[in-house]
Amino acid sequence: MKFDTVPLSSALAAEVRGPDLSQPLDPTTVAALRAAWLEHKVLVFRDQRLDVEAQARFASYFGPASHTQAPDARSRKHDPDRRVLLITNLREDGRPIGFLPDGELQFHSDSAFLERPLMATVLYAVEVTDRGGETLFANACMACAALDPGLRARLEGRRAFNVYDYTTQVKSGTLDRAGLPQAVHPVIRTHPETGAQAIYVNRLMTEEILDMPPAESAAILETLFAAIERPEFVYEHVWREGDLIIWDNRCTQHARRDFPGDQTRLMRRIGIAGDVPV
Length: 278
Ligand code: SIN
What we know:
Shape: globular
Structural class: alpha+beta
Bound molecules: succinic acid
Helix content: 10-25%
Low-confidence stretches: none
Strand order of the largest sheet: 1-2-3-16-8-18-4
Distance between the termini: 35 Å
Strand content: 25-35%
């Protein structure tokens, strides 16, 4: 099957026009899509009508689904096969039925608090709000390449502590870490397929760079977070129902803008299992 790839920004992301993902794709198309994905890091497919099976089939072209993408089981109630995580503000009896229900999210790479974070994420928009809720994608390789060479050298071999508190969705220096999912990963990671280096600390989950005075760690982290957030490295996606996006968590970070809490936002997420970052 032929498809067109239309870049969506000068930093990253491309729209793929042509494939109907409700139907199986042939191996040649899958290989071409995979190559386009490694190049653009984020692929957007619009106007798709996908049930869970079709979304899972698409995800399987990139790798096996992860069953550890979320540390709790709340949203599993609606998904007995445990592949799909609902990202939604829908509630039953006042309690969210899904994950990441409300508001803004700071830049992050999915599940960086796990020893083996997600390689990729496949997010499908079932219902979106009439404004807000945009997802911003940052090219973490471009941000890394733009760092001051002296700082790059200072970060060689450094590792950072990542933790996430799902109750507040906000990283805090006073976090009680006990019992929270947490992992130590390189500050700069190397993409196993392209060899590109990417900043792998994020504002939402990274607490500190290890073996460094706290003030220096905090100052360097702020520099790295600011690098990720430079507008020239970011593509902002305005969601429409029927959009499907696959992003590479090994070389991108993403954030979400606030959205009206009195409107439904319902996304289906399938995570693709990843390796230990190096
Ligand atoms: C996520 O961080 O996985 C969710 C992004 C979104 O809701 O747009």
